[in-house]
Amino acid sequence: MLIMDAHCDTLIDIAAGRRRLAECGKGGHIDLPRMLDGGMAAQVFAIYVAPEYLPGAGARQALRLVDTFYREIEENSGSLALAAKAGDVGRARAEGKIAAFLSIEGGEALDGSIELLRVFYRLGVRLMTLTWSRRNELGDGAYEEGTCGGLTQFGVEVVREMDKLGMVVDVSHLSQATFWSVMQVSTKPLIASHSSARALCEHGRNLSDEQARAIADKGGAIGVTFVGPFLGEGRQSVQGVVDHIDHFAGIVGTDHIGLGSDFDGVPDSALPEGLPDVSHMPVLIDELVRRGYSDAAVRGIMGENLLRVVESVIG
After folding, report:
1. Would you list the domain boundaries of the chain?
2. Cα 160–chain centre separation
3. Over 90: is that where the pLDDT of 100 sits?
4. Coil, helix or strand for 275?
5. Strand, helix or coil at 27?
6. What is the reported pLDDT for 35?
7. Cα-Cα-Cα-Cα dihedral sign, residues 250, 179, 233, 297
8. Least confident of 136-145, 219-228, 250-259, 298-307
9. Rounded to 5, what percent of the chain is helix, strand, coil?
10. Closest CA to 69 of 118, 24, 20, 2
11. Fold assignment, 3-313
12. Which of 120, 181, 226, 233 has the least CB density, counted as fewest CB within 10 Å?
């Protein structure tokens, strides 16, 4: 089973010196021993620039996290491999390694420069969430709904350049207006790396059925997140996560659903019962099988759908 997670924030802890990826028992939700226990094949590691670095130091902090990412790969070369293309996942698995993709969570890391987007691409970044809920130079985030503002002119330029370079556009964290602007501008399949269904939980970070259909119509995928407040009351459990998968499956089919844990981006208390860390990922397989999903559907949801999007955009 190819298990792939579209989003984690583990690099923040490592860069802060709180732990290393090879260490188990130092806290957090992801480390190499637990990833191996959980049968992970591929993990997307996000670069998140916290507000204290803004404005003016977004790119510098992002580069610091890029360096953190590469140091971890170098120090764990026997079990972790850089992934810049979809085919790197298969090569890593053949060598008994986990494939590590690099993403940016929030276009603040660009400091308003399209040139920096190209530099980050050359440094291995292959996905980017355009905003982190707040407004930035690219457009409005999910918590800026009141302005009804979509992509800025710079945001349009960034999305077009991402399509040209072969970077996956990530629409999690966007306002409704920015989401629909992206749908008009981007010509490639895209993802919502860590979002759930608004029909089940009315939260500004979740996707409406109309948004889910738009992602599917572009050939993209939705990474259902494990964050309790996005799952809704009474659904903060493995069963609750699969409730959201069920809902999206009924709207867009199983070919457009993946996983986006948001591990290490939320406190322990925000994670659902039964999914305290990455080592427990296989419990989702058990629940999907219990609900009657076919083998092909389970394989798709657990990772193959996300990898298909990566392959169609990146190669």
Report:
1. 3-313
2. 20
3. yes
4. coil
5. coil
6. 98
7. positive
8. 136-145
9. 45, 15, 35
10. 20
11. TIM Barrel (3.20.20)
12. 233
Phi-psi region of 50 (alpha: psi -120 to 50; beta: other; left: phi over 0): beta
Cα 161 to Cα 126: distance, rounded to the nearest angstrom: 12
Q: Using CB atoms within 10 A of its CB, is residue 44 exposed (0-12), middle (13-18) or buried (19+)?
A: buried
Element (H, E) at 7: strand 3-8
| Per-residue pLDDT tens digits for 113-139 | 999 999 999 999 999 999 999 999 999
pTM of the model: 0.97
Is it the case that residue 148 has pLDDT exceeding 90?
no
Instruction: For residues 21 and 31, give the distance between their C-alpha atoms in angstroms, rounded to a whole number.
Output: 5
Residue 149 pLDDT more than 90?
no
Q: Answer for the pair 118, 146: CB distance below 8 angstroms, yes or no.
A: no
Q: How far apart are CA 179 and CA 230, in angstroms?
A: 18
Determine the Cα–Cα distance for residues 179 and 181; give it in Å rounded to an integer.
Answer: 5
Write down the residue that tokens 């995928």 correspond to.
Answer: 221
* Mean pLDDT calculated for residue range 258-280: 98
Secondary structure, 3-state, 87-118? HHHHHHHHCCCEEEEEEEECHHHHCCCHHHHH
Task: Produce one character per residue of 235-244: b if its CB has 16 or more CB atoms within 10 Å, e if not.
Answer: bbbbbbbbbb
Contact 181, 169 (CB under 8 A): no
Query: What's the chain's Rg over C-alpha atoms?
Result: 18
Tokens of 91: 């090569």
Q: Tell me the pLDDT band of 147, cut-offs 50, 70 and 90.
A: confident
pLDDT score for 312: 98
Task: Using the predicted structure, report yes or no on whether residue 145 has a pLDDT greater than 90.
Answer: no
